[in-house]
Specification:
196 residues; 76% helix
């Protein structure tokens, strides 16, 4: 049921037009993996669940912070209306890229380590789970790229020509999210040594 929930919530993400709803459903999808790992009750599964919970907590919070910075300037969360922000906020676009790559569990992020622990645990429990987790991972990559491209690429709407610049506090918030993720990526034993 947890794996079926991953497919359902990931598929819902592909249909979202609201940026915050997309991020929220993304979190539910990732927690499906955590739930499945906890139910299996193996040391690797618990390690993967703990790793992914901490990593996704930072990643999801960073995505919500980024969505808020967009909303404060454009006053809309509709993906079709907030295109082309890379031209106006190039540094914020870099934060979007790094956070989305982390959300997709791209190497060498700590999210990938957590997902690999969980996927290998589920595969050892039942080899047929590799199909569901594989499709879930593919859909996750698809909606993460969709979110990045819809918010950053394309031509900006003429109604958003005069946008207020980003503030140091907003960049500091994102540094405080991504720096711990980077530190955990370089030293994953801080989390993964809990159950093994």
């Amino acid at each position: 049921l947890a794996l079926w929930g991953i497919l359902m919530t990931s598929s819902i993400c592909l249909r979202q037009t609201d940026l915050k709803a997309l991020i929220a459903y993304s979190s539910v999808s990732h927690m499906g993996l955590v739930t499945a790992a906890i139910i299996v009750q193996t040391p690797w599964g618990l390690t993967g669940a703990m790793t992914l919970m901490i990593a996704h907590g930072l990643t999801s919070s960073a995505l919500f912070a980024l969505a808020n910075t967009n909303y404060e300037r454009t006053h809309t969360r509709t993906l079709l209306l907030v295109r082309g922000l890379q031209l106006v906020f190039p540094l914020m676009s870099t934060w979007w890229l790094l956070t989305n790559l982390t959300n997709m569990a791209m190497p060498p992020t700590i999210n990938l380590l957590g997902e690999l622990f969980i996927i290998s645990t589920l595969f050892n429990w039942s080899s047929s789970t590799i199909v569901i987790t594989g499709v879930g991972t593919l859909i996750t990559a698809t909606y993460s790229l969709y979110m990045l491209l819809m918010t950053q690429r394309g031509s900006i709407s003429t109604q958003f020509q005069l946008l207020s610049p980003t503030h140091t506090r907003e960049h500091l918030i994102l540094v405080l999210h991504l720096l711990p993720l980077g530190l955990l990526t370089t030293k994953p034993a801080l989390i993964s040594g809990l159950f093994t």
